[in-house]
Amino acid sequence: xxxxxxxxxxxxxxxxxxxxxxxxxxxxxxxxxxxxxxxxxxxxxxxxxxxxxxxxxxxxxxxxxxxxxxxxxxxxxxxxxxxxxxxxxxxxxxxxxxxxxxxxxxxxxxxxxxxxxxxxxxxxxxxxxxxxxxxxxxxxxxxxxxxxxxxxxxxxxxxxxxxxxxxxxxxxxxxxxxxxxxxxxxxxxxxxxxxxxxxxxxxxxxxxxxxxxxxxxxxxxxxxxxxxxxxxxxxxxxxxxxxxxxxxxxxxxxxxxxxxxxxxxxxxxxxxxxxxxxxxxxxxxxxxxxxxxxxxxxxxxxxxxxxxxxxxxxxxxxxxxxxxxxxxxxxxxxxxxxxxxxxxxxxxxxxxxxxxxxxxxxxxxxxxxxxxxxxxxxxxxxxxxxxxxxxxxxxxxxxxxxxxxxxxxxxxxxxxxxxxxxxxxxxxxxxxxxxxxxxxxxxxxxxxxxxxxxxxxxxxxxxxxxxxxxxxxxxxxxxxxx
Length: 482
Ligand SMILES: [Zn+2]
Hints:
The chain has helices spanning 13-23, 40-59, 73-77, 80-86, 112-122, 167-187, 234-239, 263-272, 297-315, 332-341, 352-357, 382-407, 415-422, 435-445; strands at 27-29, 36-38, 63-64, 70-72, 92-96, 99-107, 131-140, 154-164, 194-197, 209-216, 222-230, 242-244, 250-252, 254-261, 289-294, 321-323, 346-351, 359-364, 375-378, 409-411, 426-429, 448-453, 476-479. By secondary structure, the chain is α+β, with helices and mostly antiparallel strands. It folds into three domains: 13-272, Bira Bifunctional Protein, Domain 2 (BirA Bifunctional Protein, domain 2), CATH 3.30.930.10; 285-404, 3-Layer(aba) Sandwich (Rossmann fold); 409-479, 2-Layer Sandwich (Translation Initiation Factor IF3), CATH 3.30.110.30. It starts with 12 loop residues before the first helix and ends with a strand.
């Protein structure tokens, strides 16, 4: 890694992001345009997120399964809106085993179709419902404008697919998934997301209702960080997912699907990062604490031995700790910068003088109170103090992100206010609900309706663009999005 930093956010946010993901050793560019190699440091972040979300999914009664990545092209064509929505992004295999295939195979962009086919096979009676499935998988959507983690041609995700007896039960499921995503975002990623419904123009291809969680990035743009769809009976009709009710009538099931992906990592980077690099929330940090022993030769070795002893005691507290003790050719200053670049929440510096005085020097990646700098704490107290310090740091990041979002969100009444507000943040505005009006707004400002927030107060007014009556009984959040 070079000694240089990254382009400042204020100068070019996109350059900052593109440089940082590589510098922080999260990813490398893949050999095929738009693909990414997730390096061990980045993959660990994903695993931490995955472990927590997987536990929630299983606790709520879902079972993991794994369906094939090749889907017969005819499956996608059975749901008209679905195939129309996904066609431009499909990768299709036409030759395999040296021969032209009779039917082309789609590399899964999402699995409603193939899972629908098997739901139909596995469901007979109302007693088979609800059927609650999830899969952890890679999917492929050909990207014209790729961006690491945010839009890559291949990415990792989980996709939940469930079938239910009626709309009410399917809607409960849809809202359960949305709530699980909002909790993961807030509690793990320290991303204060806004949950709510998408407008019809922003719905998933084939869904009756789409729900989303939206986070604000530090450039004021929105990131859709997870979506949950009520599919009605659209896929049930296309794939004959039906059951015999108590009176032996054949009835269509109501299905849902919901997904959260490696995109979340991009969200973490852009919610918390700064000009020095990444800032990782402790709950998603591969190393929550890094200890840098200081000193040359024999003194350095003594400090390293003490650092390893301290790391053992910290690890016993259930904390992920790393000792930077095998790179004697690098200066402490270089190491400090590098761990800041890689977003480690807490750094402990340990030199022989500290050890003789029975103290360690602790530095947070960001001060949690104004004016806070490095502090010395008694060496033997370090392990017992760290859980509290890490938990405070996690809460600090969430509060800071929430304050940032509120500072960059405003209610607007006029078109001029709207245009000015969406240039650097979010606008809460009334909208008529017409897709053509959304399109005009997008053409003029690049802003789109992100979410109709669940917790917004009931209000009515006239559309900020066209003056027609508002459609949703509340204000919609508009912003430019990733
Ligand atoms: Zn309008």
